[in-house]
Amino acid sequence: MGMKAVIMAGGEGRRLKAVTGDLPKPMVPLLGKPLMERVIELLRESGVTDIAATLRYNPAPILEHFGDGEDFGVKLRWFIEQEPLGTAGSVKNCLDFTGGEDFLVISGDAACDFDLRVLMEEHARSGDAATLALYESPEPLRYGLVVPDAAGEVRCFIEKPPWERVVTDLVNTGIYALSPRAMELVPERREFDFARDLFPLLLQRGEGIRGVRMEGYWCDVGTPEAYYRCCLDALSGRLRLVSPPPAEERREERAPRAPLPGEFGAERRVPCRDRAKLMRSVSASLMEAGAELDDGVVLRGGHCALRISPSAERSEIVIEAAAGDADFPEQLADAAGELVTSLE
Question: Which of 38, 5, 41 lies closest to 174 in space, CA to CA?
Fold first, then answer.
């Protein structure tokens, strides 16, 4: 299916700075490749190769890495915002690229493995103004909730509710198929948001909005904890990567050394039946990420480090985490503890 796509890639990723420094959020690496490169691979796999991207914060590293897209098997066009336009406003700014045809919108800083052809086909079939990719989330508080009826037509939106207002586990992923008539309601050169402004306006106008529950994996990589969980999910196979980089490439691109756990940070202990057998599973899961294996299993990043090793005294696994940010070691240790527990 020959839809065009717009990647929203203007994010700064302030909550990730403890891990990524000044990198723009779409350039945060996921097993050796920027998040946005993973998104481009997913689009290409779905037959989408004509792509525009909206940029704002620190666009230079993104432009330098991707260029015109030829090296990635796509054609890329860039739109750089001089002032904040919101999600819908930034896409409106790309209308001379999308033209008068239906098109996809996707975030350049989330990780997912959806079959996007399902979304495109449902949008073409229904003829609705907008079709939204929805995801079942056990932690819906951080997202906008979408309530469709039995036929899939959206009835209401609830933005980042408290628990007492949660009426569904279906969240808005920020992946949409849109018709040109939906974008006609977005004002020119003004801040305007899809979820907060455009979609409620479409409902008021009687336009159809369809919600499609997608199969697969999706993660909004917005916090250090979510980022680390996403990396572990990719390593374990829960997140399917279109083209995992060869192990030798990942070794060459290893980040600068960080302090070893134990100097500062957090510790977790996971009881187990067989320390050696469980450590074999841990080693197998993490060695392809470039883990060092001569002193337990050690993973290092530019701003953080993790060591997983067996206890010398009892049948348990010891997890130690270190990072420059005060809160991240605890989050890192918790996420690693969940991984070890799942491998038991």
Answer: 5
Range 180-189 burial, b when 16+ CB lie within 10 A, else e: eebbebbeee
Cα separation, 225 vs 16, whole angstroms: 9
Could you tell me the residue range of the domain that residue 253 belongs to? Answer: 246-343
Q: Report the range of poorest mean pLDDT among 129-138, 219-228, 254-263, 301-310.
A: 254-263
Collapsed DSSP state (helix, strand, coil) of residue 151: coil
For the beta sheet containing 266-271, the strands, ordered from the edge strand earlier in sequence to the opposite edge, are 266-271, 316-323, 304-310, 297-300
Comparing 47 with 165, the larger pLDDT belongs to 47
Domain annotation covers residue 74 = yes
> Which CATH number covers residue 120?
3.90.550.10
70 CA to centre of own chain: 23
- Residue 344 to residues 275, 290, 293, Cα–Cα distance (Å): 9, 22, 19
Which residue in 101, 102, 107, 83 sits closest to 93, CA to CA? 83
Determine the residue type at 293: L
The token pair at 13 is: 């990723």
Distance CA(277)–CA(75), nearest Å, equals 48
Q: Give residue-wise pLDDT tens across range 49-74.
A: 999 999 999 999 999 999 999 999 99
256 pLDDT band, cuts 50/70/90, is: very low
Q: What angle do CA 49, 233, 226 make, to 5 degrees?
A: 90
User: Domain for residue 228, yes or no?
Assistant: no
Indicate the pTM of the whole model.
0.73
